[in-house]
Every structure is written in C-alpha cells, then in structure tokens.
Design brief:
Length: 128
C-alpha cells in the first residue's frame, strides 16, 4: 500500500526533474518525465501528445538565455497507488540585460501515473 507521503514526494520529484531539465534545455530528459502517451497542453502553444510530439515541441522551446520556472504551492489533490492529480503555481522568469523579469504566471494541472517506482505526467495542462 502506497502512503500519501510517498505519492506526494514522487509527484514533487518528477515536477522538479522536469523543471530543471526544461530550464537547462534538455528536451530528452523533459520527455522522460511523461508517459509514452503523455500530453502537454497550453493555450497559445498547442497540445502535444506522445514522446515524439513532445520532444519536437521541447526542442523548439530550448532556452535562448537563462530562464527559471519557479514551481510553488504544489498540492496533490487526489491519489491512489498508481495515479495522482496535482495542482501547482508557476512563475516563468528570464534573465536579460536589466536582470530577471517575470514573463508569465500560470497554473499546472497534472494527472500523473506511476510507472514502476517513478511518477510520470500523463497530462500536464497549463492555465495562464
């Protein structure tokens, strides 16, 4: 039987792994955070399903300079041994000549599945 603490830590771990890889421009590592049929959806950017589509999208979005996705207030809203839902707030910042600047504030709504001992995104919906 999986405890809430184990689920919450697994969810937070995949979110952190994703965020570091995203800000470092490591598209392959970002994609491994998704289930094979995983989906990323964001208004204005589109919906991308499956590893090939996700990889292509994240390669296009590779950072051109320093950036950080600051993910806060993660709350696991529902869970079982193999599925969880979570909501997080995200602040996206980039560093330019004048310093760090906020580009947008959004919310992640995630559905995750456990694959062996690792949690992966089944669906990541961004609301700006």
């Amino acid at each position: 039987m999986t405890t809430f603490a184990e689920v919450a830590e697994g969810v937070r771990a995949v979110i952190a792994t994703y965020t570091h890889a995203l800000d470092d421009g490591r598209a392959d590592d970002v994609v491994t955070c998704y289930c094979p049929d995983g989906v990323f959806a964001m208004p204005g950017l589109g919906t991308f399903e499956g590893h090939d589509a996700l990889r292509e999208a994240y390669e296009r979005w590779a950072p051109r300079g320093p950036q950080r996705h600051l993910v806060v207030n993660t709350l696991v809203t529902d869970w079982s041994d193999d599925e969880a839902t979570a909501v997080s707030d995200v602040v996206f910042t980039t560093k330019g000549d004048a310093g760090w600047a906020i580009q947008f504030v959004a919310r992640y709504e995630d559905t995750l599945h456990r694959d062996g001992g690792t949690w992966r995104f089944h669906r990541r919906q961004v609301t700006v």
